[in-house]
Structures are given as structure tokens and as C-alpha cells.
Amino acid sequence: METAFTPWQSMGGGALIGLATVLLMLTLGRIMGATGILSGVLLPSAPSDRTWRLAILLGMVSGPVVILALTGQMPDVDVPVSLPMLLLGGFIVGVGVTFASGCTSGHGICGMARLSRRSIAATATFMISTGLTVFVVRHVLGV
Amino acid sequence: MRLVASYLIGLIFGVGISISGMANPAKVLNFFDLTGTWDPSLIFVMGGALIVTFIGYRLVLRKPAPLLEERFQLPTATRLDARLLGGSALFGIGWGIAGFCPGGALPALGTGRIEVFAFVAALLLGIFAARGLMALDNARASRAAPGAQ
After folding, report:
1. In this predicted complex, what is the ipTM?
2. What is the pLDDT of residue B145?
3. Which parts of the chain span the membrane according to its record (chain B) (predicted)?
4. Closest Cβ–Cβ partner in A15, A31, A78 for B48
5. Total domain count for chain A?
6. What one-character-per-residue DSSP string does chain B give?
7. Which of A13, A86, B22, B80 has its CB surrounded by the most CB atoms within 10 Å?
């Protein structure tokens, strides 16, 4: 399935992601990582750490609703993937990001912006493994 | 105050993700499909986010402390170990299969789409499974070398 090339829209969205990341460091002094926020809501190391993460999570979920209110349309979510593949992928992502202590937001943006060696290595690794996986799934297995 | 700030920050992140295309598996998978229906848009997401964060972090981290907390909490680990690299490789495999990453999927829950809830449910199961494995592994390591953990 083809998707339209949207450089300006994507860069604008990326700039907002960056703004949120900087504001979280400015106010609470924390890394904006989706993995850390989700894990911290479920399995907090201290109870006081749960509430702010829950507030961020609620804010995130409100994002598409605000887009709907402003534009009259929900953002596009096209899922060209079967339910078993979604579940399998989701489980593997959960295991991977927990061992890696981060994902696209925590390592790919926060860590890379801090020039962290671990985050640069993590980001290079998952970008390559995602690309290889997509190649195998689409062009070798033909799913 | 902390909660209001956190909610608004989450909202900005959620709007950014929604606009950027990161919440859309079709777009994400096409970004990685160089030999097929390639859509390079997502490199602009990474670019936009990194430019803003790179400059913003340098300004913010010059301050002695964040506005609402006593200190900045930054990761201190520097070692490239098997957990980091193996975990990242696994994450990529899952991302390539499903097309959602955690930061893309969490805001996408707000669209109410059942597929997103299915992905996030499986994601949570994976997080719990890995936490359990890590706890077992740590317990074994501390039995083998008392006091080291």
C-alpha cells in the first residue's frame, strides 16, 4: 500500500515531538521515553513516579482527539498487518524495549540528542533490524 | 503543577506523533521498505525532533536544576552490553512485523482503533515477560556472586 510523501507535515510533527521532549527536561528533568513512561505507570519504582507518567500518558492519548477537534478528522492509522502479526510484533517489541531500556523516543531522540554512545548503538541496531525484518516479511515471505 | 505540565507535554507529544505519521503503521513500514513502496517521510520526523531536542537540551541542561524538581535525572550507563544490543535488535524485529513502536502506539490509542489496543495489550505482555526474565537473571547473578548485584 502506497503512502503519500509528507516531508513538511512530518518535520512539523517531529518538531512538536522535540518540543515536548525539551519541555519535560525543562520542567521535571526527565527523559521523554515512551517505554519508560509506560513501564513506570505499570511497575513504578516509587509511587510518586506513577502520577506524572500517567498524566503524560493521558495527554498522549488526547493528541488524536485534539487533531479531530481542530481538523474534523482523526489522524490516519492504516494497519496493513494481520491481527496475529500485530500481537506477535507487539510482544516482541515489549520484550525488546525492556531489555534495551528504551525505544525510538528514549534512545532515538533523547539519547541521540545527548550523543549517548548507548543510544547511538541502540538506534543503529533497531533501525537495521527493522529494515531487515520489513524486507523479509514483505519480499521474502510475501506476507 | 507537575501534573498539569505533564499532561500538556504528553498532549504536545501526542499531537506531534499524530501529525508526523509515526502513529500510522502503513507509513512506518513504507519508510523501511526501501525496495518496495518507499516513503521517506519519517526521516523528517527524526530530523525535526532531533534538531529541536539537540538545541533545546543544550539550553536546558545548562541550568542548575529543572523548574519543578530538584535535579535532572539522566541515564548514567555507558556500557554497550548484550541486553542493550540484543534488546534493540528484538525491538526492531517486532517494529518491522507490527509497524507500531511504543511512542507511536500510545497516542494512537486515542483514535479508539481496536488494532492499536491489540498491539498495546501484546506490548504490555512483552514488558511483563521481560521484567520477569530480568528479575530471574538478576537473582541468579546475585546468588552466583553475593553482593555484586
Report:
1. 0.96
2. 76
3. 41-61, 82-105, 117-136
4. A15
5. 1
6. -HHHHHHHHHHHHHHHHHHHTTT-HHHHHHHH-TTSS--THHHHHHHHHHHHHHHHHHHHTTSSS-SSSSS----------HHHHHHHHHHHHHHHHHS--HHHHHHHGGGT-HHHHHHHHHHHHHHHHHHHHHHHHHHHHHHHSTT--
7. B22
